[in-house]
Amino acid sequence: MSEPNADLLIELVRRASPSGHEAAAVAFLVDWMRAHGLVAYVDSAGNAIGIRGPERARFTLMLLGHIDTVPGQVPVAVRDGALYGRGSVDAKGSLAAFAEAAAQAALPDGWRVVVAGAVCEETDSRGAYHIRDSFEPDACIVGEPSGVDRVALGYKGHVWFRYTLAQAETHSSRPEPSVGALGAAFWHAVLSWSENANQGYERHFDQVVPHLNAINTRSDGLEAVVVMSISFRLPPRLAPDDVRAAIAPLAAPGARLEMDRGVGAYLGAKDNALVRGMVGAIRAQGRRPAFVLKSGTSDMNVVCTRWLCPLIAYGPGDSHLDHTPDEHLPLDDYAAAIVTLRHFIEHLEPAAELAPAQGTTLPAEQRGDL
Amino acid sequence: MNQVECVECGTTVSVPDNVMRGEILVCQDCGTELEVIELDPLTVDLAPLEMEDWGE
């Protein structure tokens, strides 16, 4: 078995792949997987797919990474044992570790491993939606930077709204509020609703968090318009439609409130075979494992709407460096993640022992699948 | 039914015969979550802590 090295990761990071422009990185990864014993191809959504193990294996482990990045060039360089570059942490480190581990591991009987490099995770998750509808895995690890010692059990949901209000222009000396003021009033009402909805919930993961992304006014001299973009990070107890139902009555008469898109939160159980296996794999490396709940979203929020198997997220790197100009991944962490994942794969239990996903607090049809 | 000692408060914790490595038990006395890290001999340690983090 070859020693893990960072060549795959470095070459992936060198191939810039902002969302929608992943083809070169996808082609490279597919070629690499073919050269390392996987059956690999580009699917119709543009995702890189690699499969190792019998085609008719009883059980499937899905290692779902994403190959796209946010925009912005970070010069690619190895300095002081760390790889700098856009996507090194979010999330080519996880994806490359998946591919290395899948290529190196001795697969247990009955299992096959699918490595997916999904496109457009940072925008509309179109790659993950396609993968979700193409596979029915028995367990899934989503590739995101949890840190080598930590298993991510859940991600908050996310929903976006557009609020538009138009009214005839009036002289500013009149007492009626402007559309800008009415928009601000709606935002303050949203804040009050959120504050009330969070009463009694201490964990940030359990709180609904509104965010005013933009507020713009315009006028053609006859009509004034305010357009606001508002989003919410959602706890498991609130689906996107719940928020719409709650804030719609707060809108001014005549206002239009549109839900752009949304995904519900996911919170998995901490005591199923998938979690036990990863925690054991982390301990086997002499590390002390921890669980983490994430305030962001990931492709986990997409696939959980169909896949009822256990889901976790795992990958090397510090997520605080996501999307920053200082994005870098310690190569020791990358190597440790490969060893940990390989250990996990080689000790997979029969899928019959995999408990169904527990702790997901909303049924699939309510978790948002927009 | 086997028994182990809670590593936090020392209370005796009952463990089912079919317990699995990695299974999480809860001390009925202090509420601490305990992870079964070895089956023979039966050994528990503090279960992984649950923390929160920003980002993806």
Write structural notes for this entry:
The complex is a heterodimer of chains A (370) and B (56). Chain A has helices at residues 7-14, 23-35, 88-104, 126-132, 179-197, 240-247, 273-284, 300-303, 331-346; strands spanning 39-42, 48-52, 59-66, 77-79, 82-84, 111-118, 139-143, 150-155, 157-168, 209-219, 223-234, 256-263, 266-267, 290-294, 311-314, 328-330. Chain A is α/β, with parallel strands linked by helices and 370 residues long. Chain A has a six-stranded mixed beta sheet, sandwiched between helices. Chain A has a four-stranded antiparallel beta sheet with strand order 10-11-9-12, covered by helices on one side. The longest helix of chain A is centred in the middle third of the chain and has 19 residues, at 179-197. Chain B has one domain: Rubrerythrin, domain 2 (Single Sheet). Chain B has strands at residues 2-5, 12-15, 24-26, 33-39, 42-46, 49-53. The radius of gyration of chain B is 13 Å and the shape is globular. Classes of the chains: A alpha/beta (370), B mainly beta (56). The interface between A and B is medium-sized, with 33 and 17 residues. Strand 14 of chain A pairs parallel with strand 6 of chain B.
Side-by-side strand order of the widest sheet of chain A: 1-2-6-3-7-15
**Major β-sheet profile of chain A:** 6 strands, mixed
Strand percent estimate of chain A: 25-35%
CATH superfamily of the largest domain in chain A: Zn peptidases
| N-to-C series of helices and strands of chain B | EEEEEE
Cα end-to-end separation of chain A: 44 Å
Which residues of chain A sit in consecutive blocks of at least 5 with pLDDT less than 50?
A: 355-370
Helix proportion range of chain A: 25-40%
What is the name of the CATH architecture of the largest domain in chain A? 3-Layer(aba) Sandwich
The radius of gyration over CA of chain B amounts to 13 Å
Question: What's the shape of chain B?
Answer: globular
| Total beta strands of chain A | 16
Strands in their spatial order, largest beta sheet of chain B: 3-4-5
SSE run of chain A: HHEEEEEHEHEEEHEEHEEHEHEEH
Roughly what is the average pLDDT of chain B, rounded to an integer?
A: 91
Write the CATH fold name of chain B. Answer: Rubrerythrin, domain 2
Structural class of chain B: mainly beta
Cα-to-Cα separation, first versus last residue of chain B: 42 Å
